């Protein structure tokens, strides 16, 4: 299988073999991707996961082949031809197609006909043009149970119907033609009354091959909710003609009996089976697409850069119960919390203003983060007015509250702030999402973060696994401060789990900050294997070993110091390493110090830029001072915004209002694009033109056509 996968991915077989061996030895994907590049040829996390998925699929395929061969053998129907077909099958679908005729535990009409001894008659019908001869031949099979020629012929035809219905060539051809020519037809169920969310599909028809994933999910959801009725429209003439052609090539005569059995096989077996397959394939494709979009959006959101060295006031807006606030310092530590009432029904502007000004002065607040939920608009008006009246230098931003209530009521939230009300925890979360989005958002179930669509329709296990992979990859790509990270963040580090993460925090609370990565081995449960997997992703910024703050694995420390000594450098001026190596051959240096060339390049990069944060290249949070109202907008106006969600049919954009703007895929570019994610990511800052404003429905349509981002 190594060579097969190597051919498919255009990767050397030795790299595939090494990857599988590393994985089976317990090495994690982040560890392999960053610290075992020589063994894999520098595969990325994405490629590693794809190769491992393919390896697991091929193993499942081989296991299923053995099971099917044994099952057919037990029925006494295994032939060399069938065994060869199974052995050469390249997909699970092919294996199941071969197994289909032998799968039923109940006797079929074909089985009963064979038991009655009608197989010779079936073969005669298949090969004989003269229907008179067929009638004469059928007389030999009459008995007390089967008393007429029509009856025995009808029973014999069941054998041929079953044969055609399970024919691999027939199924393959029909499957291809259905994809090319058939339509999915959707209509409202007759018993549905009133308005629904599925009115666009009440009289809907589209080619199966052109049905977009988001429409597939919407249609099947509407069907599940008993609002929509789904069926398929096939070109029966084309399909029957194709089946007849295959049958003729396989020795079927053109008598009326053969024409009848082909039509019966088509209606009773072939089309129902193919429709189920098409449905499953449409769903699987749409589901995979939805999960990948969700995963890509989640990654972009988690990669939002932190806002460093500022204190923030987080506000969770509300009307009757007041706006909860929490002031936090640059590390996320809570300084003060409480409630103000600037909104209806209290409208206590003066006291609320005084409290805000006191907080700003007392805690040196640099920015304010306002949640985008209920009363967000009114709270923003209040903050904007205070800034303007007092001529304050600080700014504010609107933060998505998606998942904040989930965190507030969660076990993690309660454990962090057991004495606080859930709404105060929400305000803390809003502030911390600005300071370090990754550290805060990983405390929330990714499905609740609000960057996907149809997440409740797709396979939850598959979705959870994919999103977990994203979180793991981002956390390990960014790295984790061993002395400040929460257990919620630590559990995603390569080699660690919830129990070990809690153990690290407990050790830290008892013994103080870690002075070196080596000290990790003192934590209960962390042996050499786990240490090896985790150490290179855990950073210490004020410890005894300078290399502990970098993405350099402890296993290379000795080599690194030998290299620096050879180059006449100290750790204090190691940033000069690339300049020092300019006149030297990297390959020779690699061999001389026993460091793989790919690993050596990573070491050089980290020594040169020890504090590099990969998130710094991503568009930061947008802060503003003034208020924008929907009434201020006019068609044709060019505005700035930030992409907050990407779906199959377009993108949602934060333009500084409670209501997001929306750009349909057809308005994203002057050229054709297949999917919005091909040109944009969640978090991108963009310029867009206001195309239309629906004041009644609070909908703002945007366009990027003709817009120059520069």
TrEMBL record:
GO molecular function, one term: mRNA binding
PROSITE patterns, per database record: S1 (PS50126)
GO cellular component: cytoplasm
Listed GO biological process terms: nucleobase-containing compound metabolic process; translation
S1 motif domain span: 636-705
InterPro entries assigned: HHH_9, NA-bd_OB-fold, Ribos_protein_bS1-like, RNaseH-like_sf, RuvA_2-like, S1_domain, S1_Tex, Tex-like_central_region
Record Pfam families: HHH_3 (PF12836), HHH_9 (PF17674), S1 (PF00575), Tex_central_region (PF22706), Tex_N (PF09371), Tex_YqgF (PF16921)
Protein name: Tex-like protein
Organism: Calditerrivibrio nitroreducens (strain DSM 19672 / NBRC 101217 / Yu37-1)
Classification of source organism: Bacteria, Pseudomonadati, Deferribacterota, Deferribacteres, Deferribacterales
């Amino acid at each position: 299988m190594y060579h097969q996968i190597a051919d498919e991915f255009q990767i050397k077989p030795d790299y595939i073999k090494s990857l599988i061996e590393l994985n089976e030895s317990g090495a994690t994907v982040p560890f392999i991707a960053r610290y075992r590049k020589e063994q894999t040829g520098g595969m990325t996390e994405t490629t590693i996961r794809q190769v491992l998925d393919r390896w697991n699929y091929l193993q499942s395929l081989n296991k299923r082949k053995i099971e099917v061969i044994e099952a057919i053998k037990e029925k006494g129907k295994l032939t060399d031809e069938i065994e060869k077909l199974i052995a050469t099958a390249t997909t699970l679908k092919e294996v199941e197609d071969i197994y289909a005729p032998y799968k039923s535990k109940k006797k079929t009409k074909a089985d009963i006909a064979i038991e009655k001894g009608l197989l010779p008659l079936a073969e005669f019908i298949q090969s004989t043009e003269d229907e008179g001869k067929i009638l004469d031949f059928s007389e030999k099979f009459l008995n007390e149970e089967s008393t007429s020629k029509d009856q025995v012929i009808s029973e014999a035809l069941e054998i041929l119907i079953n044969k055609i219905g399970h024919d691999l060539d027939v199924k393959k051809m029909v499957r291809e033609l259905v994809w090319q020519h058939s339509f999915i037809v959707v209509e409202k169920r007759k018993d549905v009354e009133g308005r629904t969310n599925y009115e666009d599909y009440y009289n809907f028809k589209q080619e199966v091959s052109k049905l977009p994933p988001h429409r597939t999910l919407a249609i099947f959801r509407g069907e599940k909710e008993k609002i929509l009725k789904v069926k398929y429209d096939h070109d029966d003439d084309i399909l029957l003609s194709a089946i007849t052609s295959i049958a003729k090539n396989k020795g079927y005569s053109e008598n009326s009996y053969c024409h009848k059995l082909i039509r019966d096989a088509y209606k009773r077996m072939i089309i129902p089976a193919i429709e189920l397959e098409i449905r499953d394939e449409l769903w699987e494709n749409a589901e995979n697409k939805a999960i990948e979009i969700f995963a890509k959006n989640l990654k972009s959101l988690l990669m939002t850069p932190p806002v460093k060295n500022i204190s923030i006031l987080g506000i969770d807006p509300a009307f009757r119960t007041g706006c909860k606030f929490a002031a936090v310092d640059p590390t996320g530590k809570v300084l003060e919390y409480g409630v103000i009432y600037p909104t209806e029904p209290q409208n206590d502007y003066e006291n609320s203003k005084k409290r805000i000004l006191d907080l700003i002065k007392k805690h040196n607040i640099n920015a304010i983060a306002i949640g985008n939920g209920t009363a967000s608009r009114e709270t923003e008006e209040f903050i904007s007015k205070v800034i303007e009246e007092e001529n304050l230098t600080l700014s504010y931003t609107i933060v998505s509250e998606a998942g904040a209530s989930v965190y507030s009521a969660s076990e993690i939230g309660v454990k962090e702030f057991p004495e606080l009300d859930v709404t105060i925890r929400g305000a803390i979360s809003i502030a911390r999402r600005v300071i370090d989005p990754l550290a805060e958002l990983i405390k929330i179930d990714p499905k609740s973060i609000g960057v996907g669509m149809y997440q409740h329709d797709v396979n939850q296990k598959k979705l959870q696994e994919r999103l977990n992979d994203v979180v793991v990859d981002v956390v390990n790509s960014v790295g984790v401060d061993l002395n400040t990270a929460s257990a919620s963040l630590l559990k995603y580090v390569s080699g660690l789990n919830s129990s070990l993460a809690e153990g690290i925090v407990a050790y830290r609370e008892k013994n103080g900050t870690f002075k070196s990565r080596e000290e990790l081995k003192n934590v209960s449960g962390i042996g050499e294997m786990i240490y090896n997997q985790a150490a290179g992703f855990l950073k210490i910024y004020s410890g005894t070993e300078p290399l502990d703050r970098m993405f350099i694995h402890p296993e290379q420390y000795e080599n690194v110091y030998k290299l620096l000594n050879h180059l006449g450098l100290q750790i204090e001026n190691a940033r000069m390493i690339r300049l020092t190596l300019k006149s030297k051959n990297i390959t020779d240096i690699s061999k001389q110090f026993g460091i793989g060339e790919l690993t050596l390049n990573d070491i050089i990069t980290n020594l040169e830029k020890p504090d590099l944060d990969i998130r710094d290249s991503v568009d930061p949070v947008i802060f503003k001072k003034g208020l924008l109202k929907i009434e201020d907008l006019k068609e044709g106006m060019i505005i700035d915004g930030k992409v907050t969600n990407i779906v199959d049919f377009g993108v949602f954009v934060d333009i500084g209002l409670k209501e997001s703007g929306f750009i349909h895929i057809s308005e994203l570019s002057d050229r054709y694009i297949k999917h919005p994610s091909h040109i944009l990511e969640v978090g991108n800052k963009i310029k867009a033109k206001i195309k239309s404003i629906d004041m009644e429905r609070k909908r703002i349509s945007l366009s990027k056509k003709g817009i120059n981002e520069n």
